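Hey, can you fold this one?
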Amino acid sequence: MRRNLKIIKNFLGLIETVFSSRRLRTIFGALVFFVCLFGYIFFLTEPGVKSFGDGIWWALVTVTTVGYGDITPSTTPGRFVASALMFLGLGLIATVTAIVSAKFTQNYVDAHTNEDVLEKLEELEFEIEKLKKLEEDELDKLEGLDSEIKDIKDKFQ
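Sure. Predicted structure:
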């Protein structure tokens, strides 16, 4: 249970770290801007797109490479807009993926390195305590043997 709580705590810390990244906020801002811009341009160039919202939906589906196919370009300008958005989307999504992956890796390595070091330290502290106890027991035995030797010497003298 405690380990699960640590995992959840690490994950929440990771999410906070990822979204506090200035680069990632900039990329997300650019992504929202370009989805809105290309959605609007697509809405203007395609007669079959009935609303700006449909244009945004198409741009979002296109930029994320999902491509449902419910809205498709039928005019040459619409196809140019779609092509430009596809290339732009590949770059933006790849950048977001790279930043998030780097943050996950960094947080995982930091957390596990610290956990491993702390775990090893606890094991070493436990071993030191066992050795101290063993040393005390052995010293007590040696004192007992020393007193027995003195008693035996005294008997013979």
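The two ends are 67 Å apart (CA to CA). Let me know if you want another pass with a different chain boundary.
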